Amino acid sequence: MVRVGDSTMETWRGDITTLEVDAIVNAANSSLLGGGGVDGAIHAAAGPELLEECRALGGCPTGEARITAGYQLPAAHVIHTVGPIYPRLSPERAAELLASCYTNSLDLAAEQGLASVAFSAISTGVYGYPLGEATAIAVATTRAWLEAHPEQRMRVVFCCFDARTLAAYEAELAHAAIN
Ligand code: AR6
């Protein structure tokens, strides 16, 4: 665990749909109407009311975020963010958009008065973002946000579904802890 003022960043390995936090962050697509990967798992576990609420939102541009209730999930809310599709963009533009996903998700969490947020590894699955680069952006952007919002006392969990993702986040957090 890494402390940033009164806030923390930590890793956790497993299925994000089992986490009892104020919000889990979904790696959605711009339709917000569900899909495969973590998005499919979240919709399956939350139940059909989640899709109903998402439908009313009318989509979400890449890099932005929207919040819904968590319905049958142990998490109270779901923050849906749309990561960049890596091969379709320049690496610079992809990096900007991925950082926006983290910043906008944390902004939404703060606006709603939430104190614990678990992120999935946005864009690192079907959307093809190289894991090491995506992890560096996730940790650096979150850390910068926590430093800029010292009053928020946020617990941030990086949910890692597999060993490779966990290893990448562990390395990045170790780096963040000593720098
Ligand atoms: N809990 C936590 N992480 C998970 C879970 C889970 N249950 N299942 C998969 N992951 P991806 P993307 C990890 O492909 O790259 C969808 O179809 C997975 O191992 O879910 O942003 C959407 O609708 C990987 O580390 O998201 C979009 O169309 C991470 O979640 C598109 O995929 C992200 O992989 C979004 O692609």
Could you describe the 3D structure shown?
The chain has 179 residues and is of the alpha/beta class. It has a single domain, classed as Leucine Aminopeptidase, subunit E, domain 1 (3-Layer(aba) Sandwich). The chain is 42% helix and 21% strand. The protein is built from 5 helices and 7 strands. It has a 7-stranded mixed β-sheet, sandwiched between helices. Helix 4 links the parallel strand 6 and strand 7. Helix 3 packs across helix 4 and helix 4 crosses helix 5. The mean pLDDT is 97. The site of ligand AR6 has 25 residues, from strand 3 and helix 1.
What order do the helices and strands come in, and which of them pair?
Elements: E1 2-4, E2 7-13, E3 23-28, H1 37-46, H2 48-57, E4 65-69, E5 77-82, H3 91-111, E6 116-119, H4 131-148, E7 155-160, H5 163-178
Parallel strand pairs: 2-7, 3-5, 3-6, 6-7
Antiparallel strand pairs: 1-2, 4-5
Helix pairs in contact: 3-4, 4-5
The structure holds ligand AR6.
Q: How would a crystallographer describe the biggest sheet?
A: 7 strands, mixed
- What would you say the CATH architecture is? 3-Layer(aba) Sandwich
What structural class do the secondary elements suggest?
A: alpha/beta
Arithmetic mean pLDDT: 97
State the end-to-end distance.
14 Å
Query: What is the name of the CATH topology?
Result: Leucine Aminopeptidase, subunit E, domain 1
Poorly predicted sequence stretches spanning 5 or more consecutive residues: none
**CATH homologous superfamily grouping:** Leucine Aminopeptidase, subunit E, domain 1
Q: Spell the H/E element sequence.
A: EEEHHEEHEHEH
Number of domains: 1
Helix content: 40-55%
SS strand fraction: 15-25%
Q: Largest sheet, order of strands side by side? A: 1-2-7-6-3-5-4
Cofactors, ions, other ligands: ligand AR6
CATH class: Alpha Beta
Compute the CA-based radius of gyration. Answer: 15 Å
Task: Give a count of the beta strands, DSSP E runs of length 2 or more.
Answer: 7
Shape: globular
